[in-house]
Amino acid sequence: MSRAVGTYPSRAVVDLDAVAHNLRVLRGRAPHSLQMAVVKAGAYGHGQLPVALTALAAGADWLGVAQVEEALELRAALDAHGVPRDSAPILAWIAPSGQDWARAVEADIDLSVSWTWTLAEIAAAARSLGHPARIHVKVDTGMSRAGSTPEDLPALAAAVRTAVDGGQVELVGAWSHLSRADDPSPEGLASTAEHVAIFESGLEVLARAGLHPSIRHLSATAGALWHPEAHYDMVRIGIGMYGLSPDPEVEGSAELGLRPAMRLEAPLTSVKVVAADRPVSYGGTWRTPTRRWMGLVPLGYADGILRAASNAGPVTVLADGGPIATHVVGRVCMDQFVIDLGPARDDQASAAEDAPARVGDTAVLFGDPARDRVPSADQWARVCGTINYEIVSRLGERVPRVHIHEGGNTAGGEGRE
Question: Considering 40, 44, 301, 389, which one is annotated as catalytic?
Answer without folding.
Answer: 40
